[in-house]
Amino acid sequence: xxxxxxxxxxxxxxxxxxxxxxxxxxxxxxxxxxxxxxxxxxxxxxxxxxxxxxxxxxxxxxxxxxxxxxxxxxxxxxxxxxxxxxxxxxxxxxxxxxxxxxxxxxxxxxxxxxxxxxxxxxxxxxxxxxxxxxxxxxxxxxxxxxxxxxxxxxxxxxxxxxxxxxxxxxxxxxxxxxxxxxxxxxxxxxxxxxxxxxxxxxxxxxxxxxxxxxxxxxxxxxxxxxxxxxxxxxxxxxxxxxxxxxxxxxxxxxxxxxxxxxxxxxxxxxxxxxxxxxxxxxxxxxxxxxxxxxxxxxxxxxxxxxxxxxxxxxxxxxxxxxxxxxxxxxxxxxxxxx
Length: 338
Known about the structure:
Blueprint: H1 7-19, E1 23-33, E2 37-44, E3 49-56, H2 68-88, E4 92-104, H3 116-130, E5 134-138, H4 139-150, E6 161-166, E7 171-179, E8 182-191, H5 197-207, H6 215-222, E9 234-236, E10 239-241, H7 243-254, H8 259-285, E11 290-293, H9 300-309, E12 312-314, H10 325-334
Parallel strand pairs: 1-4, 4-5, 6-11, 11-12
Antiparallel strand pairs: 1-2, 2-3, 6-7, 7-8, 9-10
Helix pairs in contact: 2-3, 4-10, 5-7, 5-8, 6-8, 7-8, 8-9
């Protein structure tokens, strides 16, 4: 009697057969377990190619986020799946030389978030098993490195530059300085004093019945608006306040203002805020290249308006949101090249 092989075992046999003929490529592995996305990426320096996989964490309908305990649980449940799916799509055998992992939100001693411990634990386990180095970075620096990579802006490694990280958990401007062929955040030069830009977008979007995270759907609505909107952001030196934006949009919704107008008002307020912050920072610290990273900066309206007024560099739309590509690149840099 012949027994049928299980699907999993058949797949394994086929993969092992293919492996005899597949090319090997040296890579660095990046892991990022942020508050809303599980990510893994392989950076192959040989052809400057990035291979990544990521998945949003599930958020209950009508909610604006997750408790850290829930984020930790979901990362634990799906990180191994993300890595497995990534490897199954490859047409080569990755030889991992180093691992980069997001260990904290920002490059500050007091910066901590439990969800990043999931990625750190897996990275260190893999590092021990494979006998390779593990380098820890901040989630923010991962965003910046992903932006530099996706914009093909390697020249930024030559001198200091201004980087904006604008997302659901951060609205911050930092000066980044190259140091021994690595990127290092040296100073925070601008920040929000209350709400983060992504928080404002999600709170307003959820009020409008949009799915969380709300950025893409809010952008679609805003693109339908045929009116011009006027906004007056709140800037304090090189810092900003965004809580007023939530009040403005909630008032527009209460007055039954066209939803597309409310959406455009939200995005234009954020765009104008970033623009004025940038001008104030450059006036204070001198001219330097400006880089924009973070999920909010994938918005086409914000990108288009800023491009009209500033000489700036953007992460690709794909690598603006949370990803592990930046940590994979940073691991390559920290390892001193492969």
